[in-house]
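BUG: 3D viewer hangs when loading the predicted structure for this chain

Environment: internal workstation, default settings.
Expected: structure renders.
Actual: progress bar stalls at 90%.

Input used:
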Amino acid sequence: MYPKADEGAPLRAQAAAPPPPPPPATGFPMSGGGGGYYQAGGATAALAVQAQAPVAAWSTGLCDCFDDCSNCCVTCLCPCITFGQVAEIIDRGSTSCGTSGALYTLIMLLTGCQCVFSCFYRAKMRAQYGLQESPCADCCVHWCCEYCALCQEYRELKKRGFDMKLGWHANMERQGRTAATMPPQMHPGMTR
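Structure tokens produced before the viewer hung:
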């Protein structure tokens, strides 16, 4: 008596709905492999981080250290300074140059494996700017050529308009932007 309902309608509507977006990535970025893998609290979660591969190449090569001789000399004599400057910009001012440099030095003195610590910053920098993982995995680059990797990261940030000697907050002021990590300005309460 009543017309028969189309039984395939719910299936077609379900198939046409877009998939839900992936959850936000948290934890340390892990290099290598094919997707967005993040280490979070001891468990590895494979996240489908946009299917787009990084397309930007590094502005200078890994062995172009002599393009900036002063930084090359500083990095050879005291790599903690270069690492601290790079880490402050990558962390967007949440850690200072001195803190990052001191932590790098402490890890170097206690374990001799500071390259494991610094490769996380290379991976974080690549994620921020969409850079290629070249010439090989981040940990391999820092393990084999620690000083060259630090110099390359320094030059990349410098070519992107950062004055590395100023730090994050002074660079934001110079560029006329407020730093994202600055707390909002509080207005005084009511007075008589």
